[in-house]
Specification:
Blueprint lengths: L3 E6 L2 E6 L5 E4 L18 E2 L5 E4 L15 E4 L5 E5 L7 E6 L5 E9 L2 E8 L5 E5 L15 E6 L5 E5 L9 E5 L5 E6 L11 E6 L5 E5 L4 E5 L5 E5 L7 E4 L4 E6 L18 E6 L5 E6 L11 E6 L4 E6 L4 E7 L1
Antiparallel strand pairs: 1-2, 3-26, 4-5, 5-6, 6-7, 8-9, 9-10, 10-11, 12-13, 13-14, 14-15, 16-17, 17-18, 18-19, 20-21, 21-22, 22-23, 24-25, 25-26
Length: 328
C-alpha cells in the first residue's frame, strides 16, 4: 500500500489506504479504418449486446469542417461495425445508452447552427430527439451553454449537466420529461450543497439516486431525482467521467487531479487515474493509475465505461483514443 488519503464521508473523517491495481492495459484494441486516426475522446459506453460505442472528435479536438462520422460502434473484439453522425456534432462530450440501446450524446460546444445540444440517436443513426437550440448558447429551459453529460432515469426522465467553465456560464443540472419537456433545474456556481463548478458527468445507482461529478469542486454530489442533496463524496478524486453498473460498482475517471493548482485544480493527495468502488457505501476498492500523469491540464481517461464483466474502458482527450483494461 502506497500512502494514505483522508476524506470526509457523511461528516466523518476517514483514512483511506491507496488501493491496488488489479487490471492490465490493452492498447490499440479498437481498429479504425485505414487512413483514419483517433481524435480527442471523452465518450465510451457499452450497450446490451456488449458492443462498445465511442464518439470521438473527428481526428482532432472538434468536428468543425470535418466530414468523418464521429459516432463509432465496435464489437467486443475491437472490430468497427458501423459509424454515423457526420455534420451533426461539433464537440461530442458525454454519452449515455438507454434501455433500448439508443444513444444520447451531449455536444459540448456550438457554432454555425451545430452544438449546445443533447441528441438522441437510434442504434442505426437516426436522430430521434434533440434538446436545446442548435448552435445557440443560453441558460433557459430550452438552451444550453456547453452541456457536458446526459443520464436517463428508469422512468425515462432526462437529466443534463450544463456548464464547462468555473465561475462563469452555466453550472446546473436540468431535468426533462422523456419527451423533452422542461421540468426543473438546480445548481449555480459555488461549492455548497447543490452548487457546482463544472458538473462534468452523471450516473444513476440502483436506488435511482443521481450522482453528479462536480469536477472543479473535486467531489461527487448525490441527489434524489427532485434535486434534493443527499451527500458529497471526495474519495473518488476529481471526476471527469463516471459510470455505475447494475451491481452498483462505480467507475470514476480522474484526468485532472494535480498538486500544483491551475485550471486542472489543486487536489492534494490524489493522483490521476480510474477509481473503482461501491456506489452503495463509497468505498474505493481499486485504482488504475494514469500511465502519463504529467503536469499538463489533463491526461489519461476522461470518459469511462465498463461492461460489468471485468472490462473497463478509458476514453482519452489528450492522448486521443480509448484504452481497454482487463482484470488480471
Amino acid at each position: 500500500m502506497a500512502g494514505r488519503l483522508r476524506y470526509t464521508l457523511y461528516g466523518i473523517v476517514v483514512t483511506l489506504l491507496a488501493q491496488p491495481n488489479p487490471y492490465r492495459t490493452v492498447e490499440n484494441w479498437f481498429k479504425l479504418p485505414e487512413g483514419r486516426t483517433w481524435g480527442s475522446t471523452s465518450t465510451v459506453a457499452v450497450d446490451s449486446k456488449g458492443h462498445i460505442w465511442i464518439a470521438e472528435r473527428c481526428g482532432a479536438n472538434g468536428c468543425a469542417g470535418k466530414t468523418v462520422d464521429p459516432i463509432l460502434e465496435f464489437d467486443d473484439s475491437g472490430k468497427l461495425l458501423k459509424s454515423f453522425g457526420s455534420g451533426l456534432l461539433l464537440f461530442p462530450h458525454g454519452i449515455w445508452i438507454d434501455k433500448q440501446d439508443n444513444l444520447w450524446i451531449a455536444d459540448g460546444q456550438g457554432a454555425d447552427r451545430i452544438g449546445h445540444q443533447v441528441i438522441k440517436f437510434s442504434p442505426d443513426g437516426k436522430v430521434l430527439m434533440a434538446i436545446g437550440k442548435a448552435g445557440v448558447a443560453g441558460d433557459g429551459p430550452d438552451t444550453f451553454n456547453q452541456p457536458n453529460a446526459v443520464a436517463i432515469a428508469p422512468n425515462g426522465d432526462i437529466f443534463i449537466s450544463d456548464g464547462h467553465n468555473r465561475g462563469r456560464g452555466n453550472a446546473r443540472v436540468v431535468k426533462f420529461t422523456k419527451d423533452g419537456k422542461f421540468i426543473k433545474q438546480w445548481g449555480g456556481h459555488g461549492s455548497g450543497p447543490g452548487e457546482f463548478e463544472v458538473p462534468h458527468c452523471l450516473a444513476f445507482d440502483s436506488q435511482g439516486r443521481l450522482f453528479v461529478g462536480d469536477r472543479a469542486n473535486n467531489r461527487i454530489q448525490i441527489f434524489d431525482q427532485d434535486g434534493k442533496f443527499i451527500a458529497e463524496w471526495k474519495q473518488f478524486g476529481r471526476p471527469s467521467g463516471m459510470f455505475i453498473d447494475s451491481h452498483d460498482v462505480i467507475y470514476v475517471g480522474d484526468s485532472e487531479s494535480i498538486e500544483t493548482g491551475g485550471y486542472a485544480g489543486n487536489n492534494p493527495g490524489f493522483k490521476r487515474g480510474i477509481r473503482i468502488g461501491s456506489a452503495k457505501d463509497g468505498a474505493v476498492t481499486a485504482f488504475i493509475p494514469d500511465p502519463t500523469p504529467g503536469l499538463g491540464a489533463t491526461s489519461g481517461a476522461e470518459g469511462v465505461g465498463a461492461d460489468g464483466k471485468g472490462t473497463v474502458y478509458g476514453a482519452e482527450v489528450l492522448q486521443k483514443g480509448v484504452k481497454k483494461y482487463v482484470r488480471q
